[in-house]
Request: fold
Amino acid sequence: MSTIADKTVSGRPHPGAGPLSPDELRRVHAYWRAANYLSVGQIYLYDNPLLREPLRPEHVKRRLLGHWGTTPGLNFIYVHFNRLIKKHDLNVIYITGPGHGGPGLLANTYLEGTYSEFYTNIPQNAGGMKQLFKQFSFPGGVPSHVAPETPGSIHEGGELGYAIAHAYGAAFDNPDLVVCCVVGDGEAETGPLAASWHSNKFLNPVRDGAVLPVLHLNGYKIANPTVLGRLTDEELTDLFTGYGYKPHFVEGAEPELMHQLMAATLDSALAEIKAIQNDARTSGFRQRPTWPMIVLRTPKGWTGPKIVDGLAVEGSYRAHQVPVAEPRTNPEHLKILDEWMKSYHAEELFDQNGKLIPELAELAPSGDRRMGANPHANGGLLLKDLVAPDFRDYAVAVSKPGQVVAEATRVLGQFLRDVMKLNAEARNFRVFGPDETASNRLEALYEATDKVFTGQILPSDDHLSPEGRVMEVLSEHLCQGWLEGYLLTGRHGFFSCYEAFVHIIDSMFNQHAKWLKVTRDIPWRRPIASMNYLLTSHVWRQDHNGFSHQDPGFIDHVVNKKADTVRVYLPPDANTLLSVADHCLSSRHYVNVIVAGKQPALQWLDMDSAIKHCTAGIGIWEWASTDQGSEPDAVVACAGDVPTLETLAAVDLLRRNFPDAKLRVVNVVT
Reply:
């Protein structure tokens, strides 16, 4: 088994033997120290941010919250990507799988200047640093994880498992984008993350960007070793080679060696990415490439306290959160914290005003090349309207209610087909689903595009090609994660799923809805295209599959959110479905849930009536009512296609058996 100790013995190159000159090495290391210092300060300090007076208990926050263990590794990766961006003028966003390492991303966006531009009350000086420290995980401040408030983030760090899916979603149709995706070894144990490695079978280097995964193995979770952290290098090589990657290992604990190794490895990985893309864009797509990835092994809590209260901290699970727990009340802990923070020598990194010194500040990219300022991480800046056909052109002719039979989702498929055609050149629209596009009667899409796949394709395969724009994989998690990444970087999408099984992504929906809610109140965040779900194969028509396929509860979960974030639509027929879908595709910053059946069904409204009904959201169906505008004896209400059918059947029975009853039929769309 590979260990940190194994990788720091003799035989490694001298610090000068690498791509970094002695001066570059000195400055890169100093920048990393600055990021680590700011990270520790956020977790611990309420005052005295530059330690220009002796550290006292009152300078420390009363309640200590945050996660140190992953943070120095995140800072290490960030500073090395800064170097790569500047050297090659790259377009890069940074996705933080171990999102609980929020101090690191806040520190780096502060150092590069982005944070102070978005939050002018936190300038790059001693006062701003004090406020940066104080606000972290503090009442009225910012969360301890990478959150919507964090510049450069498209990935909510409060829940693990979706980093790779978000990264690939961001890379699709973004040919110049490189996504640095850091995967924590705890996160790597989740099911969604394990499936997400297969995203490389859907990435086409001709038209898509690149994802460079960095699997950060620091060996521990909150209280246990990690599974991947205890695999040997040979086992990891076999695992990721099987997934279709070429793993590069960067392992150690001695900073100077590690800086040279990381710089050299990133140079090599980028050269491999560029070679893959140049070949595909020059000669066309021929076969699925083997993409590079990096396995980074560093100690958990790297550069932090080695021993606290006689117990090992650095390199153990004890470094996961707050390694020194009681500095306000325990003088020995206060001394350890003081020595720890002073080990970074802030006096060498920040000037008298508390600003990062110029020779270090110039290591960061400038303008939109800064990862915290990249517009792809604020996708609303790049969002363009979809070009949509007139949905009325797809109308089902209904001369009289209840006389015509049609399949609502099949009609919708024809509309989506032409949305796909009209936006083919813009490459900003994709349809996602877990192997159910044809089953859900949306197969007209295949008249405009195929299903994308860059693996082996056999002559017997149907509508499968590397150029396809329908994304099917039998993982609802992966479909949802891809779509979130696609939307958050400024594009549009549509997700169809069996109603019973969309529950698999309940928690992912919840996190995305929270993201939308929070970003509504962040002035610099721009609205993005809505998350659009079509739930079909619904509860009412599942007698053949049975109880396992009968679960309408997703909308219960959705309507727990406020109406400024979520909308639920229950169109009763094909024409109302067309009107609803057109509205949802043009909407911004919502989660739209449409529930509609795919089976042949009676049609109720002509297109003009459908538009009027959907615009109101609720209406009295005069043609089905008998109250003639007077006080009704009974109001019969319905929502959704099959409930509407059953309601009208019930009204028919009532009219036959109680001809004098005054009945009012009300139908609800949303």
